[in-house]
Each structure stands twice: as C-alpha cells, then as structure tokens.
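Journal club side-thread
Mid-discussion, someone asked how the predicted structure for our own chain would compare to the paper's figures. Pasting it here so we can look after the session.
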Amino acid sequence: MKDTKKLVLMGLFVSMALVLHLVERMIPVPFIAPGAKLGLSNIITLTVLMIFGFKDAFIVLITRVILASIFGGGVSSFLYSIVGGILSILIMELIKVVGRENVSLIGISVAGAVFHNVGQLLVAAFIIKNINIFIYFPILFLAAVGTGIFIGLTSKCLLNYLTLSS
C-alpha cells in the first residue's frame, strides 16, 4: 500500500477511535464496578490490528489515548487508558499469533477486554496502594466478556465491510 494512502487511513482510524471514545464518555453506563465502559474505541484498535498488524494498531491506540487525555481525560484517565490499552493490545496480538487456528476474532476481543481491565486494576492498586481493589475483578470480568463479544462482533462486521469495499 502506498505510504500516503496508509497515512490517510491511519489518520481516519485514529479519528474514528477518538470520536468513539468521546461519545462513549457521554454515555452513562450502569455497571456496578466503577470505571467499567463499553470500550467502543477498541472496535477500531481491533480492526486495525487485523488489517495492518500490531505496529499500526499500537500507533492508533497510543495516539488515541494521548489525544483523548488532551481533550479532557486528565492524568489518571491517561494512566488507566494507557496501561489497560497496552496490556490489551499485547494479549490480543499474542493470541492472534499463537491461537491463529483456534481463537476467533471474538475470542481475541474478549481476551483484550479482560486484560484491559486487569491493566486498569493494576493502575488503581498502584495509585491507592492496595491490591484489594482486585475484589472488583469478577464483576469486571463478566462485563469484559459481554463488551468483548460486542466489540468483536462489531469489528467482524466492519472487517467484512472493509474487505468487500476494497
């Protein structure tokens, strides 16, 4: 793919991820555990991971987190997002490579959602200096399975559309 076309596509993916993130911040999510979100911007991260690979998905993730923090997230929001996002994308890439024949896109998405929550809990434990925050993990795990399935299905539809329209 030509460099200019890829650069434009990457810019569009970052823009879409940022818009999804900002829209999601406006949606009240009635989860029991504090900080639980749908993770709509992960639709874009997962899609880029599947189309372009780890490096480009990592760039989209980091750029989106930095811009989201600038547009009103703050330092703690940045820390939760960056650690959760990096842990999530690392596990998704690992599963994508290792479990190529055995794990679906939805499975990759669920694993990413679960490990995003693990990353956020690690940050919370570090900030409050108390590992007992992991008591929220079972609730966050269940939420991550649900949101991971949703994100995986949505990303699968998007990938099918992008493949058909290419």
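Post-session note: The CA atoms of residues 38 and 117 lie 11 Å apart.
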